[in-house]
Amino acid sequence: MAEEVMLLDFWPSPFGMRARIALREKGVSFDTREENILILTNKSPFLLEMNPVHKKIPVLIHNGRPVCESLVIVQYIDETWGRECPLLPSDPHERARARFWADYVDKIFPALRTVLLSPAGEAQEAAKEYIEGLKVLEGELGDKTYFGGERFGYVDVSLIPMYNLFYSLEKLASCSVAEECPKLLGWAERCMQRESVAVSLVDRHELYEFILVLKKHRQLQ
Amino acid sequence: MAEEVMLLDFWPSPFGMRARIALREKGVSFDTREENILILTNKSPFLLEMNPVHKKIPVLIHNGRPVCESLVIVQYIDETWGRECPLLPSDPHERARARFWADYVDKIFPALRTVLLSPAGEAQEAAKEYIEGLKVLEGELGDKTYFGGERFGYVDVSLIPMYNLFYSLEKLASCSVAEECPKLLGWAERCMQRESVAVSLVDRHELYEFILVLKKHRQLQ
């Protein structure tokens, strides 16, 4: 029986991008179903059925069974396909380290979200906070090629979708990630050389236009 | 060479309890170093060295190498010791499901924290929100013995320390978890039959006294 792999996704979502990248790293063919979650009433009955708890994308549906939450999805993909090209390292301590840093990427995300979606007055402070978080990540990266060393892996998959939003961050908070975190930018450019990443990220200008629409929409609510 | 396993812990912490329970489930001997993190200036240089990013307990130090973040620690313990009695199931989809629910326990924790530490006026609303979250967990539990079925596992380890705080929750918000979530209470009592859990949780009255001191301390800051 052929495998059925479907991703409930929404094109601007950095969390959806994680699932896309992981699937492509593993060479898994998948269908995408675009869920426009901009407006609550737009949530499809199918999304609500597949993720009744959080009602959010991404949801990976593998042979009819849903997996929710982007980092859980990436680990599921890693454990299910392409064991010869693992995203998580095999050593338990290195695995713990990778999980710690992927969680860290999520811990600092609310500050980025504030920059992108809150009124202009709150953007500066949140941008400063987010960039402090990026500097911690830059410290962990050091002079390595990827976060796990020579091999593109779990932390890279978790963080690179955020790079897609740096242009919007810079526009909205008048700052420069490249100036603050030059090594991280070098890492991002290396990641972008990978087809899995290049195909999964979206045009940063279109993403910025979308964020402006989203901000306006939220202010009208 | 004998293994060195040390847990930087603080007795009232539900997150520390997760690590204690997991180590005991696996039969790992460990030393504990109590870190009083009530006051910022009390954080020891050793804690800051072992967890420079979050500066929090629990930290598991295994042969000199630190592992931080409670759920990361529990997974590390599971992957390092006692593979014959796993906390996470072997099937990738079941593993993803377990990770999803353990994350959910953390997602609803801020409401419990608000009940415990915020001024009385905010407690009722937060308690209502937290109990709604518990009801979702009760729905997932259903009529199973443990969250994973017949075997005590990852979600149980993640959630049972919160049960230790239900007495404080009920005192501070005048509510009854037993009335709202009877199946969850049955599950908690089953968990308490396990030595790993019974030894790792603390006296609920002492915990409540500690929370009252903590609240007072925070109001003075």
Could you characterize the architecture of this molecule?
The structure is a homodimer of 221-residue chains. Chain A is an alpha+beta fold. Chain A has 2 domains: 5-80, Glutaredoxin (3-Layer(aba) Sandwich), CATH 3.40.30; 92-220, Glutathione S-transferase Yfyf (Class Pi), Chain A, domain 2, CATH 1.20.1050. The first copy, chain A, is 60% helix and 8% strand. Chain A has 11 helices and 4 strands. Chain A has a 4-stranded mixed sheet with strand order 2-1-3-4, with helices on one face. Chain A starts with a strand and ends with a helix. In chain A, 43% of the residues are buried. The model of chain A has no long low-confidence stretch (mean pLDDT 95). Chains A and B meet through strand 4, helix 3 and helix 4 of A and strand 4, helix 3 and helix 4 of B.
Provide a quick synopsis of the model.
By secondary structure, chain A is α+β, with helices and mostly antiparallel strands. Chain A has eleven helices and four strands; from the N terminus they run E-H-E-H-E-E-H-H-H-H-H-H-H-H-H. Chain A folds into two domains: 5-80, Glutaredoxin (3-Layer(aba) Sandwich), CATH 3.40.30.10; 92-220, Glutathione S-transferase Yfyf (Class Pi), Chain A, domain 2 (Up-down Bundle), CATH 1.20.1050.10.
